[in-house]
Amino acid sequence: MRNGPEAARENDPNPYGKVINDVTLRRKFVTKSSQRMAAARTHMAFGHGRRRARFFLRFFFLDGRLFVHCGVFKMLGVSLFFIGAVLIVNGMGLAGRIEPRDAAPFNLLVGGLALFVNLLGLYRADGGSGYFTAAGGLLFAFTYLYAAAVQWYGLKGVAMGWYCGFVAVSALMFAAMETDMRMIVMWLLWSSLWLFFFIVQGLGRTLRFLPVYTVFTGIASCWIPGALMLLGRW
Q: What are the mean pLDDT values of the chain's consecutive 10-residue runs (234 residues total)?
């Protein structure tokens, strides 16, 4: 008759069960530990990615540091610089030098740029003046996006003409709210140009000087001021 561990092993129906259970528990522990470590690494990587993305958004878009770094006039200068270019192109189109569909993509690009800049300003607006300024910029954005559709699809543009009438009156309000004489003159020029487009497209009249006036307005009130703002000489 055996005593001690040998007797216990003989009486145990599964003498290796404890060892097997220990190995199984060890494997489960290692597996869970590996899963936890992998999850931790994923969380850390995702967390770093979120922090980087949050830093990027806050730096460039939400906190307005790009606006502070470049200045409000720098961003306005970018918009005016290209608005001047699109007005020159549209003036040439009115003179018959450019086909309407050829000018449509550029109107779309400039309208999209103005839309982006002013929606960004609208998002960052912290008061009534911020919303008011963004609304003024959106007048331009919708004008060129609408012009792109009219040119591309060959529309009559009557509805756009009436929209230009609305903008012409609104521009007078923006001119009245300005304190910088240069901006007042610019708003008055834009108002007059939109008024002439209302007369031509909304009312169906003919203004032979409109192509030249469009190019002049683009150069005098957009291209040159935009370039001066970008150069820091405004």
A: 52 51 54 60 54 49 42 81 97 96 97 94 80 93 97 96 98 95 96 98 96 98 95 89
Q: Residue 54 has what DSSP assignment?
A: H
Tell me which residue of 158, 172, 149 sits closest to 205, measured CA to CA.
158
pTM (2 decimals)?
A: 0.70
Residues in the chain: 234
Name residue, tokens 């961003």: 75
Kindly report the backbone phi and psi dihedral angles of residue 22, in degrees, each rounded to the nearest multiple of 5, phi listed first.
-65, -45
Q: Is 37 exposed, middle or buried (0-12, 13-18, 19+ CB in 10 A)?
A: exposed
Work out whether the CA dihedral 233, 176, 115, 98 comes out positive or negative: negative
Task: Identify the three-state secondary structure at position 57.
Answer: helix
